[in-house]
Write a structure and sequence with these properties.
mainly alpha; DNA polymerase, domain 1; two-stranded antiparallel sheet; 5 helices; 2 strands
């Protein structure tokens, strides 16, 4: 069972993600993609400390699971969120990535994806 405090932490952690999909006075999450999820996780990983990032990915994974089970997004996107255990050494790996191989204008590229994948093992 989720405590009130845990729910508060989850809401605070994922509010920036949800706000990205605000359209006027509503939120349209139907078009969320794995790339959107990855971009958010990468941005938060660069902005936050380790345990704080773990809160974000845990909350985001829960939100995505809920949205899929409720039929609000077509397919599960939880695989786009690295597991909590993936964050050990993640920041070092992220900093070591060569950004020259990134897709133009994108936050993630082949080098970033490879760094995240390696950090999960």
């Amino acid at each position: 069972m989720l405590t009130v405090e845990s729910a508060r932490v989850y809401v605070t952690a994922i509010r920036p993600f949800v706000e990205r999909f605000a359209v006027g006075d509503r939120v349209d999450l139907a078009g969320v993609t794995a790339a959107d999820v990855s971009a958010f996780v990468l941005a938060e990983a660069q902005r936050r400390q380790g345990t704080s990032v773990c809160s974000v990915v845990t909350a985001l994974r829960s939100l995505l699971r809920f949205l899929h089970l409720e039929g609000l997004i077509e397919r599960s996107l939880t695989d786009a969120v690295p597991g909590v255990g993936a964050w050990r050494g993640f920041r070092d790996r992220l900093n070591a990535v060569s950004w020259s191989g990134c897709w133009p204008g994108a936050i993630g590229g082949p080098g970033v994806v490879a760094a995240i994948s390696r950090s999960c093992y």
